[in-house]
Every structure is written in C-alpha cells, then in structure tokens.
Amino acid sequence: MNGVLYRVRESIGAVKQTEKVVAQYILQHPEEIVSMSVQQVAANCYSSPAAVLRYCKSIGYEGFKDFKLKLAGDLSIISLHDLEKEPLEPGASLENIMSVITNNNVQSLYESLQLLDKEELTKAYRLLVDAEKIDLYGVGSSYLIASDAVQKFMRINKVCTAYSDFHMQRVSAVNLRANDVAVAISYSGETKQVIDCIKVAKSQGAKVIAITKYADTAISSLADAVLFVAAKEDEFRSAAMTSRMATLNVIDILYTACAHEEYDEALLHLRRTHEIIQQSGEKGGSNS
C-alpha cells in the first residue's frame, strides 16, 4: 500500500479550496477515479485539470497517472484484506468489534509503512546509533510510547530518558548537548509541551526526530528527521488510540535497526540484561 486515501484525508485541512474539492471527490469516489481522465475528474468536481494535477503533486505524487496507479494498488489490497470497515454502530456484536478494531489496526500499520520515507528513517536511526543520550518527549498515550522506547533502548545500553512530568522534560532537554538526540512523539504534531521541549533541546545543539502525522506541523518543521504514522479516527477510537500501534511499530523499527547496526555488542547487552532480570526474579522468589 501507498497510503493514498490516508494522505488524501489528512490533506483536506491543509490545501487550497480549489484542491480541497478534488480531495473530497476522491474520497467519495475512489473506485471510479482509477478509470477516469484528469479532465473527467476536474469536470465532476467543478475544478480544473491544473488544480487536479497540482493537488496530486502536493501530496507527493508525480502527477495524476502516478496517483491513479498508486490508488489502484491500494484499493486492491484494501479489498483483499477487507481493511475498509464501516464505523461501529450502537449494539455492535463482540465479533463485529473484534473484526473492526483488528482491521483498523492492520490498516494503520499498512498505511504507516508506506508513509515512512527510507531516507528519513535511515537518518533517524543513524542519529540514534551515534547519540550519547536519547531524550523522549510525549504527553498522555504518547508518553507511554516514549516509556516503551526507553525500556527497549536501555536493553542495548543506550542512555535514554522519558519523563511524564513536563518540568522534568524541560530540565532534561536543557541538559542535552550536540551529540544527543531528542525524540518528539505527537500524532497531532502540535502538542505545546512537546514543541517547547524540542525547542529547548535544539537550543542546546541536540538533533530532533519527530514521529507524527502526515502533515506540515510545528513539530515536523523543527525536526531533523520526520517519521510519519497513519491513524483512523471514529467516535470511540481517537486518533491517539489508532496511531498508537503504528507509532509503537516505528519505535520497534528504530530499535531493531540500531541493534543490528552494532549487532554483536547489542546481543551482548541483551544477554546481560536478560540474565540480571532473571537473577532478580530468582532472588525475589526466594524472599517470598
């Protein structure tokens, strides 16, 4: 998948009105679009061929033909895996809830995979490999993701921190240096506390990695490397919920890439940390 429909959904609030109508028409008629010409699309949404082409380029495609090709590929995968589900209705059965929630998570992972830029991902994990310290910032559910990242990276002997308290986040940020890395986790890309922390971190010379939604946001504009994730929102599942799985997946990718970069050393640290945890469990059991 190329995350085409996700990119279209996320672009609606950021494009001009002449291009917004094109995006809305695409979302309403995705299957029809793949067999239409640029002139037909323009006529049907009361726009111009030039506006359609501008819109396709604005969301990362070479033109309308490239956009249609990627959209057709996405639609075939969506159909194969039954990814597009209607929102859950009142009184939905447990079986329906199981299916919809699972498929929404799968769709988020599929779309996020296609949003990840290889160059940006390479830049991000190289920054982490070379970092003397990694400082992670997040609020609410994003902090839980940051905490998960700390547990992973500490196992391979990377010095890293994540604080739930905003004051502690600022204190940690101001103590960063040029060889350190700050990781900002915010799906909206506009979380004020996180923006404040990465501004402080950058003022100290630290590099910044952002994990956020596909859009021009305050956090992405401040970052040295930007990793996009996708989410699908409805009445019961906020964007923070649906993006959690995709963001955790990005953390796993970064962690694994770093571990493989220094494979032998990372394996040694993993064995040591596993052994010490096992010893702690044995001692705890003997005292009970």
Describe the protein's architecture and organization.
By secondary structure, the chain is an alpha/beta fold. It has helices at 4-11, 17-28, 30-33, 38-44, 49-58, 64-81, 94-115, 118-130, 141-154, 166-174, 192-203, 218-222, 239-261, 263-287; strands at 134-137, 160-162, 181-185, 207-213, 225-229. Strand 4 (207-213), helix 12 and strand 5 form a beta-alpha-beta unit. Helix 7 packs across helix 13 (239-261). Residues 2-78 form the HTH rpiR-type domain. Keywords: DNA-binding, Transcription, Transcription regulation.
Short description:
The chain is of the alpha/beta class. It is 63% helix and 8% strand.
* Binned strand content: 5-15%
What radius of gyration results from the CA coordinates? 22 Å
Unreliable parts? none
Structural class: alpha/beta
Q: How many extended strands?
A: 5
N-to-C order of helices and strands: HHHHHHHHEHEHEHEHEHH
Domain SIS: 124-264
Organism: Pontibacillus salipaludis
Protein name: HTH-type transcriptional regulator
InterPro entries: Homeodomain-like_sf, HTH_RpiR, RpiR-like, RpiR-like_SIS, SIS_dom, SIS_dom_sf, WH-like_DNA-bd_sf
Reconstruct the topology from this structure:
Layout: H1 4-11, H2 17-28, H3 30-33, H4 38-44, H5 49-58, H6 64-81, H7 94-115, H8 118-130, E1 134-137, H9 141-154, E2 160-162, H10 166-174, E3 181-185, H11 192-203, E4 207-213, H12 218-222, E5 225-229, H13 239-261, H14 263-287
Parallel strand pairs: 1-2, 1-3, 3-4, 4-5
